[in-house]
Amino acid sequence: MSKTWDQLEQIQPNVMKMLKNSLLKNRVAHAYIFEGGKGTGKKDAAFLFAKSIFCLHLQEYKPCHTCINCRRIDSSNHPDVHYIEPDGLSIKKEQIQHLQSEFTKTGLESNRKLYIIEQADKMTVNAANSLLKFLEEPSSGTYAVLLTEHVHKLLNTIVSRCQIISFRSLTPDDLRDKLMEQGVSQAFASLLAQLTNDLEETMRLYKDEWFGLARKLVIQLNETLATRPQQSLLLIHEKWMQHFSEKGQMELGLNMLLMLYRDLLSIQLEQEDTVVFTDRFEFLKQQALQITQKKTIRDLEAILKAKNKLNSNMNLQLLMEQLVLDLQEG
Fold this sequence. Notes:
Strand order of the largest sheet: 2-3-4-1-5
Structural class: alpha/beta
Strand content: 5-15%
CATH topology of the largest domain: Rossmann fold
CATH class of the largest domain: Alpha Beta
CATH architecture of the largest domain: 3-Layer(aba) Sandwich
CATH superfamily of the largest domain: P-loop containing nucleotide triphosphate hydrolases
Radius of gyration: 25 Å
Order of helices and strands: HHEHHEHEHEHEHHHHHHHHH
Number of strands: 5
Distance between the termini: 52 Å
């Protein structure tokens, strides 16, 4: 479901204020670059902006989301709103030329046209040069929105012809607070906010049963290593490997394990307000008394080493067995 203006204002207040002012003052630029990290709302804002330009029942600057134009923009079939994304690894010259030929025709339903280019930094040199010609001679009522995570990879000549709007990444504290506002417990919100800064991704993980069980297994492994180390390998064989069977899943598991051991070090350094696994605080406090800081740092290094080995295509079971042996060492 597409985002509303109010929802995006919560995530990107400065951006939405700039777009609102340009709409209210009738000063919409012919070309924008929306730049910022993954999950910052660039694409949602681009389509919302398109709706504000084409909506039949605009409320000041906010689209109604229910008129035929809003609904067609949502379903990607508005004849005057064009969306381009990489064809394979790049955006090809032919895609930009097709766009140009579409735009030489009169607007089908109004005198306005808008195009959105996703991952604009992935244009080939020829595609970028074709777009540049397009930007150099903008026709009235034609609008462009280029989306990118890497604005420095765009041609300077393209950047100079666009208004740049920067989407800031949510800080972990911002994200944790927003998750808690949506009913996520503090323990889960703190962890999710450390794993990604994408609000949608955090909510997807939170609602996924797999993630809940993954977190439990990370806690269980730490507890087993602390209280019954001889059973740790059994836990890896019987439960861990079945649950973290893919490389991406294993990476997430190791990231959580790393955070748990970082919490242990934080408690030892008396930086208790930075603890992520807040619901494990008392157990970690006891654990912190029983091992040295030196041992905790060695454990963190062992987990980081295991994470690095993930990239070398090492057998996942061997990787975990080696990690457990490293963590068992005194």
